[in-house]
Amino acid sequence: MAEPAALSEVDTRTAGLAVSLRGVSKVYDSSVMALGPLDLDVRKGEFVSLLGPSGCGKSTALRLIAGLIAPTSGSVGISKPAGQARPGHSIGFVFQEPTLMPWASVRENVRLPLKLAQAPATEASARIAEALTQVGLTEFADAFPRELSGGMKMRVSLARALVTDPDILLMDEPFAALDEITRFRLNNDLLSLWRNLRKTIIFVTHSVFESVYLSQRVIVMTSRPGRISAEFRIDTTEPRGEDFRTSADYAGYCRKVSNALAPSYPGKPG
Amino acid sequence: MSSLQTPPLSAGQGAPESSAVRLVRILLPVIVLAAGVAIWGLVVRVNEIPPYVLPGPGAVFETLVNDWPVLSQSLMVTLLTTLEGFVAAAFGGVALALLFNQSKWLEYSLFPYAVILQVTPVIAIAPLLLIYLPQQTAVIVCAWIVGFFPVLSNTTLGLNSVDRNLAGLFRLYGASRMQTLRYLKLPSALPFILGGLRIAGGLSLIGAVVAEIAAGSAGAGSGLAYRIAESGYRLNIARMFAALLLLSAAGIVIYVLLALTSHLVLRRWHESALGKEN
Questions:
Q1: Which of chain B's ends, N or C, has fewer CB atoms near its CB within 10 Å?
Q2: Strands of A17-27's sheet, edge to edge?
Q3: In angstroms, what is the C-alpha Rg of chain A?
Q4: What is the ipTM of this complex?
């Protein structure tokens, strides 16, 4: 398992895949197998949820895809952005916490990826304005993070991830800390963003309802070590809205996904 | 995702300290001061203590006014020394912390000596420094020695207290070392640095005074501490008190200035400067 994993960028382009994991595993210092081996393909423009109990390695998988950590074995393939004309990054990451710089205004927080990529100032301003419009925070560009509500902070975080116009958006339980009303609204907003921008989204969550509501494909993971135990395709009439949330279809999917998750509930033999 | 109902930016509505309480908080120390001075004066008058043992508050005040030309000059000398020592401590402390942050090896090699310099009483170092350095330099070095450590250790703490997710974000976007330092580490460390500077300000004054006193009998200097030593030899006790008063005042002003700076720099974002309403 010691062989170093190379980031392959070849095989993903031909097959229309955005992300391709092959036999990826991660062992932390404590020699605990955190993840894998894992095989996962995500098509371009697909909305995929990784669902599982805490400690099942879903966040680890996301960090591996983002390149924040290196896999112990296996390969992580990310599609190269087509033109590579725009400065920035092909991956946007939204953390569980808003992870904003408290000393900087909303605008400066959203500017960060462009600043680090040393994008020209005029282009940066236009893209910041665009990203803020996409998340509906134009009026709050000059506010500081502490002046915003939890949901608004998350929107800033989302705008920051969108500002580089990435092909892939990785979201690590982004709405877990929000109240349900705010979460529903952000779910709807995220869906409409996804419909308009057609990004590949990999969404980590521990909520069955959220995963079914949002994604085209729900991947259920089990813990120790993190593996894929089931996969569900959510087929329904698009665009989804509140009708879907209250439909019998939705309830059916939730039941199925829930049952697949059940073996990992504590107290039941897995 | 455009028609969002966003709550107004409320500035918190916790009740501020009522004005009566604030008044009491200002008034009480003033009353204590007045009472203390009155008792001092009374004790001196009733017991007929001679001014070369204990001058009354009136005599001290008189000396402060009459000797103002001499005292103010000494005050300026001490303040200048303190300022030079403080600036050296601020730059030295931050620079050293940045170096330590960039290179673990350097930190392991040098940090113990920074600690040793800190724990060795400066009053014991001062006479040695005076042998090898010109007096003015030795005084500044003393001010620097006591002042730089809090800046160093606070800055180090600050640089190591960076939010881990933010650090990850910087890595994700391929930030260079310099970019990480400039846009992430230094801003994160700023509240800590300012806290260190606040301590260093007072300590620089102490360092300057200690060195002046150690140098005192050598005699070329004319700072406030030197005035105190000199007035002691001449049994000019009133002037000792007057000089002491000025030193205290200088310390208070330095502290207030640094606290104010810290508040102004941090007031838009840091918890420490936001008051209790949030």
A1: C
A2: A7-8, A73-78, A17-27, A33-43
A3: 19
A4: 0.81
